[in-house]
Design goal:
Elements (H helix, E strand, L loop, with lengths): L13 H13 L7 E5 L42 H9 L44 H19 L1 H10 L1 E5 L2 H8 L5 H4 L2 H21 L4 E5 L8 H4 L9 H24 L4 E5 L1 H10 L8 E5 L25 E3 L7 H13 L5 E2 L3 H5 L1
Helix pairs in contact: 2-11, 3-4, 7-9
Bound molecules: 2-acetamido-2-deoxy-beta-D-glucopyranose (3 copies).
């Protein structure tokens, strides 16, 4: 239905309008496809296919609120950000690239390359042994693009990609790597140098994506990472780690500036930046508005704030997932993902900058 708002009906005959309208109803998606690149916030199962990876969620209690209580590899009690995003666009969730048969034609409504634990930098996620960094995700995308060209021809494939939405959910793992116990990054970079390094690497890779035909990019900032259970548990009284929050915000500032520059340098590019930091801070400040009674502790885990271990089969979990912001030590609950996607898709410029996804899709 939202698509109808994008169409200018001036001067069209009633017959044409009816025709267009029935076509839209047949496929009322706001975009032809969603291509997803990112980390655990949007991974819908790629890591299930990485035999050596330690970043997995294909076991209980993950998925406890998913249909049939299935542990799909989503780092969530139920659906995640990518699921709600696809639903808003009017498309099925883009399936994991690694679940596709190599010979088959890729689904025309999009593919997901996202991999839990991965980052913008190739080095990020090494503690998980096996993840798919952004550069490799783009390599995989280029293979899908080749098949699209074979299938549709160069010009139709190009047109398809130019209308498709590229959802990029990165940054958390790159940023947290700096603060990890025993991290060697502080020996190589100051915090500001590291933030600049991530942002400039991201810029180069987004340029590559633009070169492969991506025009509509949705890029998420990072949340206030110092307020995630894994950081709160280290601070007295479970308060936020203000240093980690400060650098989370600095990364987001760099990212926003980079996207503005990239747009001015890249023909036909449009983007939406999602201010996850602001959106999550708003939840922390107004928990009751959204029905949250627990903004600090993870629902699933063990130990202090349930953040000493991930959500493992041996972990305990809360009975009410609706009133928790965090599912485990680092991932939000399904309900938070849904709130965020609502803001991103149809919210004001407070959190979706410089436009929302409904406007981007037009
Ligand atoms: C990152 O990995 C890709 C292969 O996936 C490689 O092509 C690229 O050169 C690497 N980048 C850096 C900076 O090492
Ligand atoms: C960091 O690691 C050291 C050595 O393993 C350990 O003694 C210390 O408690 C750890 N610090 C935190 C904050 O986990
Ligand atoms: C989008 O937001 C506008 C204004 O708040 C509202 O009227 C409209 O129903 C919303 N549309 C969708 C699809 O959520």
């Amino acid at each position: 239905m939202e698509v109808a708002t994008c169409i200018n009906v001036n001067g069209t005959t009633l017959l044409l309008f009816v025709l267009v309208f029935s076509l839209l109803r047949a496929s009322h998606a706001a975009a032809p496809a969603v291509y997803v690149l990112g980390a655990s916030m949007v991974d819908v199962g790629n890591n299930n296919y990485l035999p050596r990876s330690l970043a997995k969620a294909d076991y209980p209690h993950n998925g406890i609120d998913y249909p049939d209580r299935k542990s799909t590899g989503r780092f969530s009690n139920g659906m995640n950000f990518a699921d709600f995003f696809a639903k808003k666009i009017g498309l099925p969730t883009s399936p994991p690239y690694l679940s596709l048969n190599n010979d088959a034609t890729p689904p025309i409504t999009g593919v997901s390359f996202a991999s839990g634990g991965s980052g913008i930098l190739n080095e990020t996620g090494q503690t998980y042994i096996q993840v798919i960094p952004l550069a490799q995700q783009i390599n995989y995308f280029s293979l899908v693009r080749n098949k699209l060209i074979q299938q549709l021809g160069q010009s139709s494939a190009q047109k398809h990609l130019s209308k498709s939405i590229f959802l990029l959910g990165f940054g958390t793992n790159d940023m947290l790597a700096y603060f990890n116990n025993g991290s060697t990054i502080p020996k190589q970079y100051t915090q500001q140098q590291y933030v600049d390094h991530i942002v400039s690497t991201f810029k180069g890779l987004l340029k590559m994506l633009h070169g492969l035909g991506a025009r509509k990019m949705v890029v998420t900032g990072v949340g206030p990472l110092g307020c995630y259970p894994l950081k709160r548990k280290l601070i007295k009284d479970g308060e936020c780690d203000v240093e980690v929050d400060f650098w989370s915000a600095r990364y987001n500032d760099g990212l926003k500036m980079m996207l503005r520059d990239l747009k001015s340098e890249s023909k036909g590019m449009k983007y939406v930046y999602f201010d996850m930091y602001g959106a999550m801070s708003n939840l922390f400040q107004n928990p009751k508005t959204y029905g949250f009674t627990d903004i600090k502790e993870a629902c699933c885990g063990l130990g202090k704030l349930n953040a000493d271990v991930p959500c493992l089969p041996t972990s305990s979990y809360c009975t009410n997932r609706q009133n928790h912001v965090f599912w485990d030590l680092i991932h939000t609950t399904e309900v938070v993902a849904s709130i965020f996607v609502d803001l991103l898709y149809n919210g004001t410029q407070k959190y979706a900058v410089p436009m929302n996804v409904r406007q981007l899709a037009c």
